[in-house]
């Protein structure tokens, strides 16, 4: 600390010290220059509080003791007055008030120091968390470029741009491409989660047909479903025919919702089973359900599935980053909707969400 600043602080403390001394002197003069029946000892409370805020516990105790002694001194000092019992009682009450003031002010000071320390710890933890988040966001963003480059290189190899490859080699390259694309999807999900948490989810609203989005997503996941021998079925509620289910939403983000839910269902379903997509129109909400035939979800997991980085501890087969469902919840809630999960009987799980009906949707179906 600069010498000039230290000198200023010392001068400030000296001024406060003499201010407190002056206040003690003024109260003492009032005490000893007036009849003993008038108790001015309560006025020592002000200097005691000043001492507590400026000089700490030891000084507070000393100031309280001095104030008590000065308040009771008039009882012991020789005087032409006859000290009455009520006067002694009044001064004892004043002493008790001074002691309580000193004690409570010290407790309050300790409490304030504890609060300040906790606030400092919280701020340090928040700062560290922000640094970690920034680091993770930057790292995630920087990972996209080499991963995209690796995917394009593998695709060129698959096309034979670097020479002919054997069918067995092509199958291996296809697996490598799918693995890289999955990793890229995880990186993009992580990046979007960080961006949404800091900046909020920005949506481009327009009329969207949930049926069209769901069917398009199912088409893009045919290879993944085939690799696990999963059959994707569509159910249109009470209707046996394909319907239009319109909402006001962001088609790209809703596409991601179905990708996350269908991928989750495929990965958690046993081989050779099916995943059912149920699309139900309603008077006020459009409902979409994705039902798998997996192991289901334990009651302990149900409240936590849509939390950030939660992966669960059930017997369901696949494990993920714990971000897909969290991002899905972000998107659905940003659309004014609700997402939930239920267990199915005798086995499996249903992930469902609802979105408000697009006003005037009947005119869009014709």
Compact overview of the structure:
The protein has 366 residues and is of the alpha+beta class. It has helices spanning 3-33, 45-55, 57-76, 85-158, 167-199, 210-220, 222-227, 251-267, 324-334; strands at residues 206-209, 231-235, 246-249, 274-280, 285-291, 338-343, 349-356. Helix content is 58%, strand content 11%.
Comma- or semicolon-separated keywords:
11% strand, 9 helices, 366 residues, alpha+beta, five-stranded mixed β-sheet, single chain, elongated, Heat Shock Protein 90
Describe this structure in words.
By secondary structure, the protein is α+β, with helices and mostly antiparallel strands. The chain folds into three domains: 3-124, no CATH class; 135-199; 206-364, 2-Layer Sandwich (Heat Shock Protein 90), CATH 3.30.565.10. It has helices at residues 3-33, 45-55, 57-76, 85-158, 167-199, 210-220, 222-227, 251-267, 324-334, and strands at 206-209, 231-235, 246-249, 274-280, 285-291, 338-343, 349-356. It has a five-stranded mixed sheet with strand order 2-4-5-7-6. Strand 4 and strand 5 form a beta hairpin. Helix 2 (45-55) runs antiparallel to helix 3, helix 4 packs antiparallel against helix 5 and helix 6 (210-220) packs across helix 8. The longest helix is centred in the first third of the chain and has 74 residues, at 85-158.
């Amino acid at each position: 600390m600069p010498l000039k600043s230290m000198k200023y602080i010392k001068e400030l403390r000296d001024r406060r010290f003499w201010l407190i001394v002056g206040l003690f002197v003024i109260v003492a003069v009032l005490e000893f220059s007036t009849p003993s029946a008038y108790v001015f000892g309560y006025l020592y409370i002000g200097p005691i509080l000043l001492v507590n805020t400026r000089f700490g516990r030891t000084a507070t105790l000393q100031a309280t003791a001095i104030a008590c002694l000065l308040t009771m001194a008039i009882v012991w000092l020789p005087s032409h007055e006859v000290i009455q019992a009520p006067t002694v009682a009044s001064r004892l009450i004043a002493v008790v008030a001074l002691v309580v003031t000193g004690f409570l002010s010290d407790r309050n000071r300790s409490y304030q120091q504890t609060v300040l320390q906790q606030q400092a710890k919280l701020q340090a933890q928040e700062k560290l968390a922000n640094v970690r988040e920034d680091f993770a966001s930057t790292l995630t963003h920087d990972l996209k470029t080499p991963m995209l480059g690796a995917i394009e290189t593998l695709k060129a190899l698959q096309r034979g741009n670097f020479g002919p490859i054997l069918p067995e080699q092509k199958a291996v390259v296809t697996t490598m491409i799918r693995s890289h694309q999955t990793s890229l999807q995880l990186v993009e999900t992580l990046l979007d989660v960080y961006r949404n948490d800091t900046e909020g989810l920005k949506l481009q609203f327009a009329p969207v047909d949930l049926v069209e989005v769901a069917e398009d997503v199912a088409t893009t996941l045919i290879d993944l479903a085939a690799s696990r021998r999963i059959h994707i079925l569509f159910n249109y509620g009470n209707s046996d025919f394909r319907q239009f289910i319109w909402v006001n939403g962001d088609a790209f983000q809703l596409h991601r919702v179905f990708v996350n839910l269908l991928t989750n269902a495929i990965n958690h379903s046993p081989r050779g089973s099916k995943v059912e997509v149920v699309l139900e129109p309603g008077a006020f909400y459009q409902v979409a359900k994705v039902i798998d035939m997996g192991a289901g979800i334990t009651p302990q997991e149900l409240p936590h599935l849509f939390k950030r980085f939660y992966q669960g501890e059930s017997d369901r087969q696949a494990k993920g980053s714990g971000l897909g469902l969290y991002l899905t919840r972000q998107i659905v809630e940003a659309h004014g909707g609700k997402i939930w999960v239920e267990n199915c009987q005798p086995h499996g799980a249903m992930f469902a969400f609802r979105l408000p009906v697009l006003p005037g949707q009947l005119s869009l179906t014709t």
